[in-house]
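$ ./design --mode recover --in tokens.txt
reading tokens...
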């Protein structure tokens, strides 16, 4: 027997929740859908899995077509299989989330898809169940940031303490006291202070720091002291 009998064939797609940070706030990369149904509406970047392609390869192909870059942090999120999720055909979607530093990748975006970065605080309505995918990704990022060394995928190699604070506030949707945050961050001893300053926001400026990658890989959980109620993150 070469085929399974009496079984219905379904389409399989991959959708990418591409989350970025611009130094101030978290944003989502969305595109204008170019075909029906829902043509012209905001959508996650996605596509169908090809016959001889794995899910991860399909997700990387889609990311490359949009950003022109490879090696972006990418992780499988969840599968969505509601029979009514796509009005055209029964389509199962495997969602992935990606973390990028917007300042590094912004210029490489493909113009073919009319991609735009939208603030996670004020997202437009997305097609199908894409808003649910985004909500799921945000919860997963909160968990991952607390338990795995992925947070700095969103930052450039050199960053200021205020930028790092903005990132934490964007992820956990809370406000931190500036002095207390700085004290806790520096107490981890996982950051290396540079001689350079960012003077874009004040004459005094803020020193740039770099991550001590070797120490961070072993002791990244030192940053748990910064996270509000880390035991309640699920």
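writing sequence...
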């Amino acid at each position: 027997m070469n085929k399974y009998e009496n079984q219905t064939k379904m389409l399989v797609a991959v959708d990418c929740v591409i989350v970025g940070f611009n130094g101030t706030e978290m944003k989502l990369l969305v595109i204008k859908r170019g075909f029906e149904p829902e043509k012209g509406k905001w959508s996650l970047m996605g596509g169908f899995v090809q016959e001889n392609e794995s899910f991860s390869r399909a997700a990387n192909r889609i990311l490359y077509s949009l950003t022109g870059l490879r090696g972006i942090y990418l992780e499988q999120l969840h599968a969505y299989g509601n029979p009514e999720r796509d009005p055209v055909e029964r389509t199962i979607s495997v969602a992935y989330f990606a973390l990028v530093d917007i300042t590094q990748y912004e210029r490489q975006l493909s113009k073919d898809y009319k991609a735009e970065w939208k603030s996670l605080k004020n997202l437009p309505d997305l097609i199908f169940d894409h808003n649910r995918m985004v909500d799921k990704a945000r919860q997963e990022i909160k968990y991952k940031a607390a338990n795995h060394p992925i947070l700095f995928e969103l930052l450039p190699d050199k960053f200021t303490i205020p930028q790092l604070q903005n990132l934490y506030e964007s992820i956990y949707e809370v406000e931190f006291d500036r002095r207390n945050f700085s004290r806790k961050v520096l107490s981890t001893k996982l950051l290396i202070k540079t001689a350079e300053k960012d003077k874009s926001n004040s004459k005094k400026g803020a020193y740039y720091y770099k991550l001590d990658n070797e120490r961070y890989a072993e002791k990244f959980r030192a940053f748990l002291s910064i996270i509000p109620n880390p035991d309640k993150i699920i």
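exit 0
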